Amino acid sequence: MLAKITSCALVGLNGTLVDVEVDVHPGQVGVIDIVGLPDAAIQESRQRVRSAIHNANLSFPQKRITINLAPADLHKEGPAYDLPIAVGILAGGNQLPLDHPGSLFVGELSLDGTVRHVNGIISMASVAREAGIETLYVPEVDAPEAALVPDLTVIPVRSLGQLAMHLNNLLPIEPYDLSANPLVNSEPEYAADFSEVRGQEHVKRALEVAAAGGHCVLMTGPPGAGKTLLARSMPSILPRMTIEEALEVTKIYSVCGMLPPEQPLVRVRPFRSPHHTISQAGLVGGGHWPRPGEVSLAHRGVLFLDEFSEFGMRTLEVLRQPLEDKVVTISRASGALSFPANFMLVAARNPCPCGYHGDSAHECTCSAGMVEGYRKRVSGPLMDRIDIHVEVPRVDYEKLAGNTLGETSAAVRARVEAARERQRARFAGTSLYCNADMGPAQVRQFCELDDAGRGLIKAAMRQLGLSARAYHRVLKLARTIADLAGEEGIQAAHLAEALQYRRRGGE
Ligand SMILES: Nc1ncnc2c1ncn2[C@@H]1O[C@H](COP(=O)(O)OP(=O)(O)OP(=O)(O)O)[C@@H](O)[C@H]1O
Ligand SMILES: [Mg+2]
Fold it and tell me: What separation in angstroms does the CA of 165 have from each of 58, 112, 172, 295?
């Protein structure tokens, strides 16, 4: 008997439907062949499925079994095919109905028949819906994640035995009800708040501008000035994610197996802070089965590179392409894969090796050559891609010891969200989310300057030696500053502030 069960493979971040064909036919008992480019985990599924069927008190067909995973030219990996294979074997052995039209099965089996978590459920659910599938049979722990994709009936499966009872209409399993999950509607929590940072008002302003338009920032300052503290409170001033953004981010975390089961939807913008010893592949992604790197894990959020000058120069250079294109493309013999990488770069560094160059209270012990060499560890092309360069000086005792708390993150976030609202209206109907996403055509359309502004930027181009890229980036930054001020047109004052952020870096 030939059973055909629908399942799903992951290719990068996206799902592809896979037919699991199981033929139970006369022949040598106990032989199970699996064909269709399976990896080792799928080959081992033979043992798991056999034990799971026995331990679920079902009987394993005493026949020869051939399993084909179609399309045959697609490499398949992971243990997610255990469940469809088991259902196919049971169906081929007349213990379950032969056909399950409109249903998709995924899940790993443990030897006792329990169905275990698999990665990438949300991507699989998305492709299932596009293909017109109505019912999804998934591991119980993954049901909240699958149910985030609307218009699907999600059946949470605890064990193979329970599934067999359900498919034979003996004891139906209740579909998962997403409204029962309070986590989806709860308020996100943040690790740090802006009000805890004393002084540094100009840095906070720069970070607010960066958050409002999605621009890159570099903070330079002596040890203990609050750079790391400021960066860590960034997520709390970033606008809340729209549901589309949240689903994009959730897909990435789901594929990487980094989604906690009790939190099916990533609600807070990601904040990634890799150590400076990270490899190029760790940063942009790679591996035999390409996995997203830190730039993709920071998609729609912040990539914080602390001790920026300590990162390997060649490591940092791989950031140039994603910073410009906002996607990472990894080539493999089997084809190229793209991962989204639209992140905000926030970097922090000391001005020199000893850390005190330009500090008012501490003498710098570095020679001029050492300071120069330290700065050059970050290449010109990379510096050119950073919109906001800001100095973070030491905080005075009075500010630090005073009792006045600064503005809360919630207040800053309200302004940031208002600015983003203007951007959303501006970019309605396009794939752009914020000002930093604009290409040259949109810059021309949305960043028009008045006469005073044109005079200012002409002088600045000459004086600061701005590149064409920097020119566009300054205009985008000025657009954000105008949005924060609630102005339709970019005024000279907005442009002047944008240029100031460039000037600090061009020292
Ligand atoms: N502006 C500030 N307001 C309140 N606390 C601060 C401030 N700056 C520093 N601190 C205190 O000092 C600690 C260290 O600050 P932080 O780690 O942010 O310094 P840094 O600028 O990153 O230094 P380094 O260059 O050595 O990495 C903070 O955890 C906090 O307790
Ligand atoms: Mg630090």
Answer: 11, 16, 7, 45
